UniProtKB/TrEMBL annotation:
Keyword Glycoprotein attached: no
Keywords annotated in UniProt: Coiled coil, Cytoplasm, Isomerase, Metal-binding, Mitochondrion, Nucleus, tRNA processing, Zinc
EC number per UniProt: 5.4.99.25
Chief subcellular location: cytoplasm
Feature: compositional bias, Polar residues: 88-98
SUPFAM superfamilies reported in the protein's UniProt record: Pseudouridine synthase (SSF55120)
Protein name, per record: tRNA pseudouridine synthase Pus10
Catalyses which reaction(s): uridine(55) in tRNA = pseudouridine(55) in tRNA; uridine(54) in tRNA = pseudouridine(54) in tRNA
GO BP annotations listed: tRNA pseudouridine synthesis
Enzyme class of the recorded protein, top EC level: isomerase
Family: Belongs to the pseudouridine synthase Pus10 family.
Keyword DNA-binding among record annotations: no
């Protein structure tokens, strides 16, 4: 095999032969010889093995360990035993008779190649088209909408142990040649795997792999046959292996890698069996999951009921109200985008007995793992209409898809913007129109508001300075008037009216010299210029 075909040079020959004797597959040999040609890894496995043997044809017979023959497919053998029909050379290495002598014509064409002792089959049949088709079947049956994908894999932790054993072998051989290399110079298994498998997914799915894609396909591989490969590390490096919540085993990949960094070469070789035994079976994919990154839908809502909480009202495990603003909106969005769950947020909140009028309150809903990730403008309008037709308690407008970053505009408005309210107020003392006119002339009225008693269970005790920018009164009768207020966001309006037992100063009671209480409160505007207004025609 010419060096242009393999990308291996003469200096790689001894390392390649050692790895082949070690039970490595051609692609692992390329990795350990630091070959970075992606096209080479993508070539058919049979071709790679055949060409590799051609490259090594000048290697002496006694150094060949035929874990895989030059005429694939190949018979699987164990490296730690002499099977029936094998010949043993004078130096103890095992030879397999020519494969042509023990097969009928075409009789073993469907046999598996021997499983690689390093990658445990990951760079063999598990990166071939049959495996990719099985994963794509799972993807297509899940009905996800996507234009690209990110492919993530989780390999069994014992692969790190086997790679370390192979590296020590390679390192020893390189030192004989006065050649220096670091373990970090090797082509990582995950990198080589993706070089091979990404083009196959593109062929099957018709969309490219993209590390920034929101659609993730994740595969978890396992190899129970070699699980015990890691166990000696627990005795050698006990500090690396501690039981964690939600972890079935202490032998996580991170813990194993940490232990391999700590253990000396001498201790490793003393405790881990080298050469490796050839596995009987390759890794298996024990879990294939598809997930879409969250999408965000924003809009503004009006709330017309005085018996509807913004979020589910549950006290001591008991539900107090039938529904909520959050549920009346989110249930339709979750169904339309086929999401697993949702998270609701808004620019502030109103009490259960407070209406939100005018242009409404900005809100955003995070839809978790949606199968659909986009709707046409007309479809969004139809969805908005479905929500509005489902209840007379809540109406939405300007419904649209937004980015995660854009939600920051809404949260900024909670403290930085102004809000306008309308309050129906009762006074104990009889009042005349001129008694309340003094309120109209007050501008930039500063309040000291101690955390209200009604929210003290969920808010820290503090005194907050808030500003009433303007007030406009409407006289109704000698005990009632309506007050329109423009305030700083975060102002407690109810407490400004009744004083909260003196915890808000000044308040309407002290300003008018009478006991006052609030009968009704409406939010007339939330002055946050987000989300953008849409043409609903």
């Amino acid at each position: 095999m010419s060096t242009s075909t393999t990308a291996l040079s003469e200096k790689d020959k001894s390392v390649a032969q050692k790895l082949l004797n070690f039970g490595a597959c051609p692609r692992c040999i390329f990795r350990f010889c630091r070959i970075g040609s992606q096209d080479l890894y993508r070539r058919p496995y049979k071709e790679l093995l055949s060409k590799l043997h051609e490259f090594l044809e000048n290697t002496t017979e006694e150094n060949k360990l035929p874990c895989e023959t030059a005429n694939p497919p190949y018979k699987r053998i164990k490296l730690d035993s002499v099977k029936e029909g094998e010949e043993q050379t004078s130096n103890g290495s095992h030879q397999v008779p020519n494969a042509e002598n023990d097969r009928t014509a075409g009789g073993d064409e469907n046999l598996r190649p021997a499983v690689c002792s390093i990658c445990l089959g990951i760079l063999q049949e598990l990166c071939e088209m049959d495996f990719v088709k099985a994963v794509c079947h799972k993807i297509n049956s899940s009905e996800y909408q996507f234009t690209s994908f990110v492919f993530s894999v989780s390999f069994p932790p014992q692969l790190s142990v086997r790679e370390h054993a192979a590296w020590l072998l390679v390192k020893e051989e390189m030192e004989k040649q006065d050649f220096l290399a670091e373990k970090e110079d090797l082509v990582q298994l995950k990198e080589a795997y993706k070089w091979i498998i990404h083009p196959l997914f593109l062929e099957q799915l018709g969309v490219p792999a993209d590390g920034k894609s929101l659609f993730e396909v994740s595969v978890v591989f396992a190899h129970p046959e070699t699980d015990e490969d890691c166990h000696f590390l627990a005795s050698a490096c006990p500090s690396c292996f501690k039981q964690e919540k939600n972890k079935q085993s202490v032998f996580t990949r991170m813990a194993v890698v940490k232990a391999l960094d700590m253990i000396s070469e001498e201790d490793f070789l003393k405790n881990f069996q080298c050469p490796l035994t050839s596995p009987k079976e390759p890794c298996t994919a024990v879990d294939i999951q598809c997930t879409n990154g969250a999408i965000f839908v924003a809009g503004r809502y009006n709330k017309y009921s005085r018996t509807l909480p913004q979020t589910p009202w549950i006290i001591d495990g008991e539900r107090k109200m039938e529904s909520s603003v959050e549920e009346l909106i989110s249930e339709h969005l979750t169904a339309a985008f086929k999401a697993d769950s949702f998270n609701f947020s808004s620019s502030g909140r109103e009490d259960v007995d407070v209406r939100t009028l005018g242009n409404g309150r900005p809100f955003a809903i995070e839809l978790v793992n949606p199968r659909k990730v986009r709707l046409a403008a007309e479809e969004m309008k139809e969805l908005q209409q479905i929500i509005n037709n489902s209840s007379d308690k809540v109406q939405v407008r300007d419904l649209q898809l937004v980015t995660r970053e854009a939600i920051g505009h809404m949260k900024e408005g909670e403290e930085a913007k102004t809000k306008t309210y309308s309050a129906l107020i009762w006074t104990e003392k009889a009042i005349r129109n001129e008694d309340i006119e003094l309120l109209d002339n007050m501008k930039e009225l500063k309040l000291d508001q101690k955390t209200p008693l009604r929210v003290l269970h969920r808010r820290p005790l503090a005194v907050r300075v808030r500003v009433i920018y303007t007030m406009q009164s409407e006289y109704i009768d000698e005990h009632h008037f309506r007050l329109h207020l423009k305030t700083q966001a975060g102002t407690y309006i109810k407490e400004f009216v009744h004083g909260d037992f003196g915890r808000t100063k000044p308040n309407i009671g002290t300003l008018l010299g009478t006991t006052a209480d609030i009968l009704e409160l409406d939010v007339e505007s939330v002055d946050v210029d987000w989300p953008p207004t849409l043409d609903d025609k």
